[in-house]
Amino acid sequence: MDRHAIMEQGLTQPLIAPALSPAARRRQLREKVIAGFITLMAFTGIAALILIIIFVAKEALALFTEPEARHEASLSKMFLAQDVAPGKPPFRWQPVSKIPKVSMIPLFVGTLKTTAVSMLVAVPLGVFGALFAAEFAPRRLRELLKPVIELLAGIPSVVLGFFALMVMSTVVKEALGFDRPLNAMVAGLGLALAIVPVIFTVSEDALTAVPRSYREASLALGATPWETAWKVVLPAAAPGILAACVLGFGRAIGETMIVLMASGNADVISWSLGDSARSLSATIAAEMGEVVVGSPHYSLLFFIGVQLFIFTFVLNLMASTWTKRVIRKLTGGAA
Amino acid sequence: MSLNPNAPRPKMEARELTLRYGTKAAIQKVSLAILDRRVTALIGPSGCGKSTFLRALNRMNDLIPGANHTGTILLDDMDIHDRSVDVVDLRRRVGMVFQKSNPFPKSIFENVAYGLRVGGMKDKAALEQRVEKSLRGAALWDEVKDRLHESALGLSGGQQQRLCIARAMAVEPQVLLMDEPASALDPIATAKIEELIHELKATYTIAIVTHNMQQAARVSDRTAFFYMGELVECGATEQIFTNPREKRTEDYVTGKFG
Amino acid sequence: MTPGTRRAVGFALTSLTGLAAFIIIAMLAIILFNVVENGAGGVTWTFLSQPPSDGMMGGGIFPAIFGTAALTLLMTVAVMPVGVLTAVYLHEYAPPHSLFARIVRVAVVNLAGVPSIVFGLFGLGFFILFVGQGMDRALGHEEMYWAQPGILWASLTLAVLTLPVVIVSTEEALRAVPMDHRTASLALGATQSQTLGRVVLPGALPGILTGAVLAISRGAGEVAPILFTGAAYFLPDLPSHLNSQFMHLGYHTYVMATQSPDVEATRPLLYSTVLVLLLLTFALNLVAVIIRTRTRRKAAGAH
Fold this sequence. Notes:
The complex is a heterotrimer of chains A (335), B (258) and C (303). Chain A is built from 14 helices and 2 strands, in the order H-H-H-H-H-E-E-H-H-H-H-H-H-H-H-H. Chain A has a two-stranded antiparallel sheet. Chain A has helices at residues 3-10, 22-60, 62-65, 67-72, 75-79, 105-136, 139-154, 157-176, 184-208, 212-220, 225-254, 257-262, 280-287, 296-334, and strands at residues 93-94, 101-102. Helix content of chain A is 74%, strand content 1%. Helix content of chain B is 36%, strand content 26%. In chain B, the strands form 2 sheets. Chain B has a 6-stranded mixed beta sheet with strand order 6-7-8-3-9-10, sandwiched between helices. Chain B has a 4-stranded antiparallel beta sheet with strand order 2-1-4-5, covered by helices on one side. Chain B starts with 9 loop residues before the first strand and ends in a 5-residue tail after the last helix. Chain C is mainly α. Helix content of chain C is 76%, strand content 1%. Chain C contains 10 helices and 2 strands. Chain C has helices at residues 3-39, 45-49, 62-93, 99-113, 116-139, 151-176, 179-187, 192-221, 249-259, 263-302, and strands at residues 52-53, 58-59. Chain C has a two-stranded antiparallel ribbon with strand order 1-2. Chain C is globular. Chain A binds chain B through residues 1-3, 5-7, 10-11, 13, 15-21, 24, 27-28, and chain B through 3, 5, 8-9, 36, 75-78, 83-86, 88-90, 93, 174. Chain B: This is Phosphate ABC transporter ATP-binding protein. Chain B: One of its GO terms (molecular function) is ATP hydrolysis activity.
């Protein structure tokens, strides 16, 4: 077949050039540059996370390298009981006294106390609230709950701290007969306000991810709605709810302003919720303003930051693994 | 294929084209010519590979992760997968109309002018002229000329599809690929589209995928029957519908399966 | 279980969960009521437009409003391009099953979980001491110019903090743009970046704006990250340079609430400050909700 003859007859439009035209080459180059730039931007998130850990750790590093800091704040001084005169507490956080005392134990205890209170309050509220919204609530009420949660989540933590300090402290003191208005209980309740939205939102997502077919199957077998919710939906969403709690826990550990304003900030070790407590995060916030850059105390505060980073990082990884698992299980199971 | 020198030359031609998604072959060793200024209908049951074949002709399959091919596709004797071919240039020469009308949420004018603008045309008068020409070409001008700057989403389904055809025509491609362009439309709108296809074949080479056998018989000059990823038979439309060579083709066009 | 107990248990469970929901709503109501009741009287034009006077016992909070606005404006300028383009990468450019994209996602999720006080430490250690000192050295400043707390460093710290908010909502917005629009554009011979600029980003704009508003609302309320990076309790002048310190509504609230010599005397001012801060963040959240529901309704109507 004589292709050339045919082509000469009917051809009015130009052929595609045998090599890329300069215009096409320019266009391809431009596209590559743009794609490269966008990819570069995507690197920012990773860079930020890496820079955070590097630069927070860098300032803490002096604790392990500088002789003065190593003497003043050794790991044993931070984490082990100190020999003190009888009757004096072996764990103290007083980094600016004449002989600096740098035990982290009171800070751990303080953090755990406030966090425990907040979890005890926020987990039932958040999870049950989410269960109500996802399973039982009439449509209207459910549509009211969502913006309420969003508004609650939108309240700046300094406002929650303020509310705990000005209002809740008095109420709690009178109701429970505590000696002092600012204590672990008040801080914990304030923290609960901050983490209820987290627990609620993530739990509700997990509950609504449970396929309708699960519910229908259960109801068709004669189960009542609450039996379905309790025995079918809740177990199916359990990893997601666990993730919600872990996320809330991480938020509570890292939350600063509420504890700083409402806990009293004394470095006492006691298990009474009526006593003042000093958390890791609040310690950084309260003391960083007055330290000399490069001093052992300064490095210590950054070291606390490193610990906070690590705790929350691990908790977040756990939570996201569980969330993924519940989604995979439910979407895989539904297909 | 025809060796008669008076027959229209092939505008596009696939040679031994095999297309896979991952490892699963969607079409197998298809060799098919799309003749210049003719309407070629691609028919066959769902999943037979006809849409995949159509999308290969302007490399829309490049967008699907894992898609790969062997064999060649020629446009005017030039391999469209050659490194010297820019896919943007290719798509300006081989336009496409989709099954679901997909106008942009922009004005009617901006929809039609879109391809021209991204191609670098800035002159307002020239744009207006081309938009009008395309809308007239798509038999839509009289219906929309008074509301060119209103949203295209306000048009009816049939109008939207003709707008999409106008939009594809505005860049003056040589080939128009249509993927079931009337499947979502009512009979009146469908008739308008078919009429339009008749008019367009004077200037364009058209390949149309359709589910509707009557439609294929009405609009096309040549018909290719695909079955399970293979090209079973291709020939003049009349011959395919009245005197198919293959048993499978006969069964399909007479409605025994599909 | 007898039908009677079954019904009783069901009723108990429903009311228990309902009670939890009720308590959540009540908590919000109590906070709002308390703040509005005690603060509304003090929010006057003078309060909004005047600087503090009489050692914080009188006057207004204008410098704190100004500082908060300037801070969040700078933050938004910094975070939006980076956040939007990161989301664009993840949703439009990343190859499927890209390892890099997966790492970016993990990083973003974890970034969202880093405690805000750690961002403060980061701002101090990285922006002020590393970047600031480096700039001072490079630019030949004899005394500290950049290596001190200032509004630029505080806003950049907040930008890093709000980055996940912007990325997540932008990605959601991109997901809402129909795939059809992209294929139509590409089939017309548009390049990928033209498709992005002319079809995808305009389509995603409302969602991107929602993200911006949410980021602003979050950034405006955060105090811990700016404690050591630039906030000041009282300044005679408004911030005028990128290295100026600034007053801030949240920081103002914190200091007045915890370090006031006379709690009773400052209480009305304090409540009014809190009310202003709360109104600001709620207004921003409301704007975000409105944009979102509008676009969702529009998206639903278009199909």
